[in-house]
Amino acid sequence: MKSESDTTFAGPLLADIESARVRVATVAQVTPMQTSRYLTELLGSEVYLKCENLQRTGSYKIRGAYNRISSLSDAEKAAGVVAASAGNHAQGVAFAARELGIKATIFMPIGVPLPKLQATRSYGADVILRGHSVEEALRAAAEFAHATGATVIPPFDHIDVVMGQGTLGLELLDQVPDADTIVIPIGGGGLISGVASAVKQRAALEGRSVRIIGVQAANAAAYPPSLAAGEPVEITTTPTIADGIHVSKPGILNFEIISQLVDEVVTVSEADTARALLVLLERAKQVVEPAGAVGVAAILAGLVRGTGKTVVVLSGGNIDPLLMQRVISHGLAASDRYLKLRIMLPDRPGQLARTAELVAEANANVVEVQHTRHGKGLQISQVELELHIETRGPDHRDLVIAKLRDAGFELRVEQ
Ligand SMILES: Cc1ncc(COP(=O)(O)O)c(C=O)c1O
User: Does ligand 1 come within 6 angstroms of the Cβ of 59?
Assistant: First the structure.
């Protein structure tokens, strides 16, 4: 364990995080800590949810952004700040700059979801759409900084940003002083490196230890290979619904802190993340974006050992309604509560009614039907039926499928 006397520790010291907390408290709210009966039963030990999805701007990002911007010199403040982001960092920087009376310019990729664009603008930032990826927007932000003298506010790889995010760790320990395990989403590593710095130093002073588990989306998990290689490694990612943590390379400072302080990094699938979002909505009544729900996904996937009080950080709640709709249907399908079937029917009267009857006999509910006579691969005497059915779990889903197959229907399970 590292402490203030350990000069090899690259991260922020506890005293500095405590000072940051005083600064950040002027803009950030103390977010609620909530228990979860459902997850407690599943894990076999107490689970708490740190609801940073209810933070101002909808995520923890204002902590780091505010701490970084407030530490700029007067000359730097006068020249303004610039950032590139497709989401929460943009809102955090825009909000923090407005609170400090500083001009903010945010570069966002073309095609960024409208709610995120509007929210960033609503905090008073100048938003410039540039490029088709965050990397392209980042290049544009760097050029802007060079041309205007504005300071770039990085999303994770800066000591002041890490220190600001660390304030969440101190707050969390005030709410659950005897936390045994803390589960935290990882993108570039800003949040977890800050929280781990705060929590591990505070716990060491109290002569105890706290386990820190990081969670990445399997489709964008640069930390496991980087930790194995002993240095940040750039990986090829694939799309993930957890867009907030879609990062292809760890931050340099963040990697160093995480290598020293984080006990374990696990990865979760898209299906687990969708299920987590649904559990949070239904059971905890919390609206959480996919990146903010990966900690719960890790519990659902059995990747976290319950050895005491476990705090899961819900790091953000900014999800646009269209994505929410898609994630909910994936989450229902992943929990075997939504079944999509394609059935080939002979084109004879009564076939559609017969399938509906069989589904009803299985006590399942049809939520959508599509009945087509034309289409590729269809014989003249055939009709294709697409049925969307609400089911109550794996056994019920199997029952519906078996009932239709036993009656001689040729079907394909789509979801
Ligand atoms: C909701 C949410 N959770 C977690 C993260 C983690 O990011 P990082 O590890 O880079 O701090 C992000 C990053 O934007 C985010 O938006």
Answer: yes
